[in-house]
């Protein structure tokens, strides 16, 4: 029984992985129906996972509020925002607009969520700028090339920079479309090969960390 309990998840992973890897190469209506059915099951499982995640989030912040840990007031704000948005969304039937007029749910999205997202990215801009300053110090020839390329791209992406250096726009486009694209594709190929290798290790039971243990 213990052996079966340990090997059953590996067997399910092996069979499922091989079947759904093979179905992409089988041009038959049965494989398409199989993919459609599994996609629906994934949506159902995702719904249960969402409920589990929200329940875990509620439990975590309830413990913080009960113990009055540092920052527990933010947990209250989280409760108010989450429950309030759910209530308003159910009341508006999940619609942001009705007959061209914004609902309360749409108002929350337009005038609360969007400005909060903009604020978050605005704060991240300062962090990125400070990180770029530390990274682009010309301590070597490679760093100097990176610094020059970054300056050209930044100058070519804003109207003021292109006004001061008219050629920066074309050079910036060439750097992004040729140099950057080739490097990005090389990275994607490497990541894809790594993902394929990891998938084979999981399918054939070499990598078992997803079971919550080691490789025993």
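-> sequence recovered:
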């Amino acid at each position: 029984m213990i052996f079966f309990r340990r090997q059953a998840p590996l067997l399910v992973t092996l069979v499922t992985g091989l079947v759904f890897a093979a179905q992409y190469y089988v041009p038959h209506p049965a494989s398409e129906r199989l993919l459609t059915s599994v996609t629906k099951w994934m949506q159902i499982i995702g719904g249960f996972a969402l409920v589990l995640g929200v329940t875990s989030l509620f439990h975590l912040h309830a413990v913080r509020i009960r113990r009055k840990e540092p920052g527990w007031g933010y947990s209250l704000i989280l409760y108010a925002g989450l429950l309030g948005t759910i209530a308003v969304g159910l009341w508006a039937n999940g619609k942001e607009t009705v007959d061209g007029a914004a609902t309360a749910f749409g108002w929350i999205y337009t005038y609360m969520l969007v400005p909060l997202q903009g604020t978050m990215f605005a704060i991240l801009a300062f962090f990125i700028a400070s990180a770029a300053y530390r990274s682009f110090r010309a301590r070597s020839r490679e760093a100097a090339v990176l610094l020059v390329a970054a300056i050209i791209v930044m100058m070519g992406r804003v109207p003021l920079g292109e006004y001061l250096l008219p050629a920066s726009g074309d050079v910036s486009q060439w750097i992004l479309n040729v140099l950057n694209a080739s490097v990005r594709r090389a990275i994607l190929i490497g990541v894809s090969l790594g993902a394929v290798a990891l998938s084979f290790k999981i399918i054939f039971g070499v990598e078992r960390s997803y079971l919550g243990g080691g490789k025993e």
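The mean pLDDT is 85.
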